Automatic annotation (TrEMBL):
Pfam families cross-referenced by the UniProt entry: NDK (PF00334)
Biological process annotations from GO: CTP biosynthetic process; GTP biosynthetic process; UTP biosynthetic process
Function comment: Major role in the synthesis of nucleoside triphosphates other than ATP. The ATP gamma phosphate is transferred to the NDP beta phosphate via a ping-pong mechanism, using a phosphorylated active-site intermediate.
Active site: H117
Entry protein name: Nucleoside diphosphate kinase
Complexes and interactors: Homotetramer.
PANTHER family to which the protein is assigned, alphabetical: NUCLEOSIDE DIPHOSPHATE KINASE (PTHR46161), NUCLEOSIDE DIPHOSPHATE KINASE DDB_G0292928-RELATED (PTHR46161:SF3)
Length: 141
């Protein structure tokens, strides 16, 4: 397995529930390192651009409204197979379908307020890390 980086976002619902630490502990326990992090409130333009791939979907406006509704914790996670590992830790998009013990099963309330984002492949991971953390090399640890 290759050393990878992936983008994680702890979404406004999970930040509001005060579980940034509990979620990040799961990343760390699985061997993922936080190599960059920032707690920010996204602008509507940033949220729309980040989720551009979903622009034509019926839930796009709800998704953007939700993502700008409060602060988010954006992190770059690094580790062996980090992209798939993070997706496994997250669980299915719909928390009702997420496996027991996953972040979404334990912390998410609905398909729109589903606690976390994670890059879904090597190309999206590279693009999403660059979107939020240009010039990341300086943060390597
Ligand atoms: P993810 O990669 O598991 O986050 O899922 P997707 O990339 O398919 O969708 C991106 C995000 O859009 C999801 O995490 C949800 O927040 C939201 N989303 C996806 N499908 C739906 C839906 O059917 N209804 C609503 N309201 N939101 C959705
Ligand atoms: Mg996705």
């Amino acid at each position: 397995m290759a050393l990878e980086r992936t983008l994680s976002i702890i979404k406004p619902d999970a930040v509001a529930k005060n579980v940034i630490g509990q979620i990040t502990s799961r990343f760390e326990a699985a061997g993922l390192k936080v190599v960059a992090a920032k707690l920010v409130r996204l602008s509507r333009a940033e949220a729309e651009q980040f989720y551009d791939v979903h622009r034509a979907r019926p839930f796009f406006k709800d998704l953007v409204d939700f993502m700008v509704s409060g602060p988010v914790m954006i992190q770059v996670l690094e580790g062996e197979g980090a992209i798939a590992k993070n997706r496994d830790l997250m669980g299915a998009t719909d928390p009702k379908k997420a496996a027991a013990g996953t972040i979404r099963a334990d912390f998410a309330d609905s398909i729109d307020a589903n606690a976390v984002h994670g890059s879904d492949g090597p190309e999206t991971a590279a693009a999403e890390v660059a979107f939020f953390f240009a010039g990341l090399n300086v943060y390597t640890r």
